[in-house]
Amino acid sequence: MRYIPVFIVIISLLPGLARATEFDHSALAHQTLEQHIRPGYTQLLAAARGLEKNIGTHCSAAPGNTLSSVKKAFGSAVLAWSRIEHLRFGPIMKKARHARMVYWPDRKGLGRKQVARALGKRDASVTARESLEGKSVALQGLGALEYILVAKGSEKLSIPGPARTHRCLFMKAIAANIVLISKEVLDQWSGRQGYAATFMQPGANNPAYLEPKEVTLEIAKSYLVALERVRDIRIAGPLGLQRKSTRRKPAVFERSGLSTRAITANLEGILHLYEKGGLMEHIERHEAGMGKGIQYDLNLSLKQLKSISLPMKAAVEDPDAEDKLMAIGFPLKSARKEAARVLTQAAGLALGFNALDGD
């Protein structure tokens, strides 16, 4: 099989490029904030609260009930997070919030071992949100919750006894932690204060952005790097097509069977950023037809992903599903490469790629 290279995007600012002054950086920032960032984190908070409520209901009920409602709420939270995961700037990157939401990839299974150890020893420090917040990031988020819900021993959640009590308290602490993180981030993006002001008012006194072009850079980087992650890590890893390793790697949320759905949600979020956030509109304005062409590539990839009903672990063993996953790499590469090219010309950004680009 032909491997899909891992791209390393080096993005810097290049002043004075032709037509850079024609690009409306402020309009793009405003549209991205109003139409993509705020709605995305609003949906995440709603899903997190739904998860917390369902865990509370299950743990308050008599033992013996199934975990179906909790697993459904967990799936909703995973998908809500996956659709906004590509935003790796602003308040989500403060206090290690991004890693605390999902610790992945779990290299050498270190996170899994930490969760298993906490369950085995019935560690009291993971049963309250306040103490959990100071623990390893691997114990705090959706990955840890996935392990409790579906890994070996999960049946104890339906059997009376100390193990059920401890697991319920652990789950409640994780859910409360996820709600708090989601709320803190949304609060920073809401209104005219917090990080929203930083994002919308670049200048000499701004701690993050000196000029409007730097905000556009942040948005472009979110789009471009997210496409790389989906193509070269989320898909190529399980296929065994990463450049430095031919060994197939576990997919994100593989244990719960949500892997393909989570990756699909990743791409849905990227497409939403592109369409609703304003990148498509600005690219189309600079080069007629290209904005829609990139949209076509993204939709083609998304359609292929949605047609795969198998989780990634099974999909990579199924010839038809594997062929679809392989084919997705080409339109995703085009959607990234063409957007980078046009943004270089239109927005005054210099987007450099390593020597593997084009392989």
Fold blueprint:
Elements: E1 10-13, H1 25-60, H2 68-82, H3 97-101, H4 110-120, H5 129-132, H6 142-150, H7 162-189, H8 194-200, H9 212-239, H10 259-275, H11 279-286, H12 290-306, H13 312-315, H14 319-347, E2 349-352
Antiparallel strand pairs: 1-2
Overall description:
The protein has 359 residues and is mainly α. The protein folds into two domains: 10-32 and 199-352; 38-194, M75 peptidase, HXXE motif (A middle domain of Talin 1). The protein is built from 14 helices and two strands. It has a two-stranded antiparallel ribbon with strand order 1-2. Helix 1 (25-60) crosses helix 9 (212-239), helix 2 (68-82) packs parallel to helix 10 and helix 10 (259-275) runs antiparallel to helix 12 (290-306). The two termini are 13 Å apart. Residues 1-21 and 354-359 have low confidence and may be disordered.
Summary of the model, kept short:
About 60% of the residues lie in helices and about 0% in strands.
Discrete helix count: 14
Q: How are strands sequenced across the largest beta sheet?
A: 1-2
Run of helices and strands: EHHHHHHHHHHHHHHE
**Helical/strand content category:** mainly alpha
List low-pLDDT spans. 1-21, 354-359
Please provide the count of β strands.
Answer: 2
Work out the count of structural domains. Answer: 2
Q: What would the principal axes of the Cα set say about the shape?
A: globular
What Rg do the Cα atoms give? Answer: 21 Å
Query: Distance between the terminal alpha carbons, to the nearest Å?
Result: 13 Å
Overall pLDDT confidence: 91
Question: What fraction of the residues are assigned to beta strands by DSSP?
Answer: under 5%
Largest sheet: 2 strands, antiparallel
State the share of residues found in helices, binned by percent. 55-70%
